[in-house]
């Protein structure tokens, strides 16, 4: 059964919303990457999309070339956030209560922990990460728990913020 490479999803839909649909889509099409196209220029929605495993967030009023860039970025395994959204995440990352210090925290991580962090921050599920790294899902969950403990992070959004701050992924 073929699955789409990229799913373009709106937050506002009849009878449901994109945030409610995303877990079902990720279950039905686990290898597909979800790019949210929305009219909501709202950090709360952005955080919810990232927490649900979304790989990108684009405003409907974005220029055509920005939408194409977002689709290409997500298709190629990256995460797309408008630079203003990336800045908002960096400036207001309330979930990461600990003060993130220069590169000291990143140096605490093993190479494997860093790779697991990067893949999860890019929107991959634990299962996808396990398949990509040829590990069991349980091993990926253990690495993720260790990363969150070492970095004192409590959510997926905080993982994304940390990864952005430390150059593990880039906003286009």
CA(first)-CA(last) distance: 32 Å
Main β-sheet description: 4 strands, parallel
Task: List low-pLDDT spans.
Answer: 94-102
Elements, N to C (H/E): EEEHEHEHEHHHHHH
| Domain count | 2
Fraction in helix: 40-55%
Task: Give Rg in angstroms.
Answer: 15 Å
| Average pLDDT rating | 80
Element layout with pairings:
Layout: E1 6-10, E2 12-13, E3 16-17, H1 18-28, E4 33-38, H2 43-51, E5 56-59, H3 64-75, E6 80-81, H4 83-91, H5 104-107, H6 111-121, H7 126-133, H8 137-151, H9 156-165
Parallel strand pairs: 1-4, 4-5, 5-6
Antiparallel strand pairs: 2-3
What is the compact description of this entry?
The chain is α/β, with parallel strands linked by helices and 172 residues long. It folds into two domains: 6-91, 3-Layer(aba) Sandwich (Rossmann fold), CATH 3.40.50; 104-165, Arc Repressor Mutant, subunit A.
């Amino acid at each position: 059964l073929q699955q789409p490479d990229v799913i373009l999803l709106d937050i506002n839909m009849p009878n449901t919303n994109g945030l409610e649909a995303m877990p079902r889509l990720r279950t039905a099409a686990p290898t597909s990457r979800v790019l949210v196209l929305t009219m909501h220029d709202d950090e709360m929605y952005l955080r919810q999309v990232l927490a649900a495993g979304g790989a990108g967030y684009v405003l409907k009023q974005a220029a055509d070339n920005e939408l194409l860039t977002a689709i290409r970025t997500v298709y190629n395994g990256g995460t797309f956030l408008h630079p203003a959204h990336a800045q908002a995440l960096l400036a207001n990352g309330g979930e990461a209560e600990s003060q993130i210090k220069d590169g000291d925290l990143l140096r605490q991580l093993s190479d494997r922990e860093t790779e697991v962090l990067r893949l999860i921050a890019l929107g991959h599920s634990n299962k996808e990460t396990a398949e990509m790294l040829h590990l069991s899902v349980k091993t990926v969950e253990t690495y993720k728990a260790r990363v969150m403990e070492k970095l004192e992070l409590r959510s997926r959004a905080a993982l994304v913020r940390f990864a952005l701050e430390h150059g593990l992924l880039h906003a286009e």
